[in-house]
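Input record (one chain):
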Amino acid sequence: MQMVDLKSQYLRIKSEIDQAVLNVLDHGQFINGPEVKQFQHALQRYTGADHVIPCGNGTDALQIALMAIGCKPGDEVIVPAFTYVATAEVIALLGLIPVMIDVDADTFLSTPEQIKAAITSKTKAIVPVHIFGQCADMDAIMKVAADHQIYVIEDNAQAIGSKITLSHGPQKHSGTFGHIGCTSFFPSKNLGCYGDGGAILCHDDALAEKIRMIANHGQKKKYYHEVIGVNSRLDSIQAAILNVKLPYLDTYCAARQSVAAEYNNAFQTKASIQTPRTVPYSTHVYHQYTLIIKDGSRDSLADYLTSRSIPNMIYYPVPLYAQEAFKDLRGAIDFLPNTDQLCKEVISLPIHTEMTHHDQQAVIEAVQTFYKHND
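The corresponding structure, as predicted from the sequence alone:
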């Protein structure tokens, strides 16, 4: 059993994947081949974004986005303290100040109220993270940003395929609400390639043109460099794989939702286990299935599951502000109550598109047995 079974997923679509890769090997256009543009247009149609700029990985996407909005050293960028390091890492890398805020104790998401309280005259951008597959309240966050004339960059690395319902009715895909949306195609993501890959989404024509330049050494025309850029490309083989997998994304998300529903049914009556809380305005595509263990037994449960060969992970064991790498950037932060508590209580269980009923029952039985022995 694995946290994510990528091999079984590959075997289900092996003939399509193999042919797509062989096509690239046959034409030999390994960089900026036709598959890259094909994927760009396909992802635009799927998400409804006016512009999609493929890039090397999700971390690059975040860095390029921050470069594109004209951030200068000393500018502040608001980011949750309960997230993967990449979200704040690129902020620090550019000489910006990551202003780390707490998250909601039940949904793990930044709230508009927490964001608003962190805004200062130096705030340049907000980076809401759609963590574990569920979206932050983008409708309200965009209103806060508009009131203060600051940018919003969505970190959509874990939630591609999810949808948000606006207060006035229509649904839109995650990653298309902010001024810029960033996503990752790391292999374990809901839409994953077989290496590194990422993409940047936006609606603004001028901003999209700048993003394209930055991702390509700051040039529109070869050897004529207008801005300082980076080298960040989605290669043709990865694009070919994503072209095969994108039509399956909704099916993949539905499979994860089915697994999550089975887990919820099994665990929801256990007082010491809090199953994932969902918000009314967003679908949840369960990049991770994360429990909150309320009785202080999280680490013991993790050890027990490991002893039974049941994969499990803790996302995340240390708040970002407490990481050694940010010791000079954390400012006056020494306590974020929800984040600190979550880091002691969360545990993620196996969830993926190919999960069998037998394997899921093995996970459920192991968790239930642990509590029978420890009640």
